[in-house]
Amino acid sequence: MSKRRLLAIFIALVLTVAVSAMWSASTIEREGDADANAIEDSGSSAGNAKEHKKSGNKVVKILAAPFKAFGRLFSHKDNNRLQRTTEKDAAKFESVGVSRVDDSRTPEPKKLALANSAKEHLANGRSYLLNGQLNEAISELSTAASLDPRLTEAHNLLGVAFDKKGLADRAKESYERAVKVEPEDAQTLNNLGFSLYQNGNYRAAVDRLKRAVKLAPTDERILNNLGLALCRLGKFDDAYKHFARAAGPLTGNLNTARMLERFGRDDDAIKYYEDARRIDPSSTMALRRLTDLYKRTGRLEQSQAVSNTLAGISVSNTAQSSSSGR
To answer: 280 partner at 20 to 30 Å CA-CA among 90, 105, 234, 252?
Structure first.
């Protein structure tokens, strides 16, 4: 068999595996609140103020990660031979939603130095939390809060840890203790409000988040969380106002439309997508969703017209890229 044929077979195999990995990565259920994920796709910040999330274009990362991961399987710095994935390689696969499996070969979790003071336990708890060691974080933060009940950050981070463990009631208690100590802390109010929102207490969530907005009127994350809670109460016009305050009218319309779409209110979603289109006629997100929504609601001519506009923008962008590359 010729080298050219062998190379063609190998390339076909690589593409097949990569496409399969890409499909799997795009269909894996994302972690976190579904509503928050929906508006984060438009570049908006939402959720818990202490939960640091990786920045960048999520769609591009999802599509690119499988190819990068696959490439790492076939290349290492020491040589070009096919090798077994290492623990370091496995950790990098977390970007495509693959959970790491701990077994007898897995290194022991990171252990920190013994602490004596409340602040030392707080520092340990924060480190464990950032490292994903929730049980250890809860133990250290609980000790810190016990030693110094007025240590607001200990209660706040303890709430974050309980939230990540799915212990909503315990998280709410911790956030409320933090708010009691620091009633004017916007981020703690945000965390409490978002926790209430996640557990269906929408009116209470709106109350806490409105208080947080008064304290931090330009905080994008708090404004978006308030918008999400208002959507759950059916107050979409008010929600739009807060989404728009957070990131401008274009993103405000897109986020409101996404939420209306999630609730099955396609006609209302179309209105907001059309408003977004008027602000930015080349908004690909608005055009893609309008194409689908018009088709779904039986307005096939409008769907085709929007699809043609989207195709024209794509052709124009390709032409510009080609001319600039010369």
So the answer is: 234
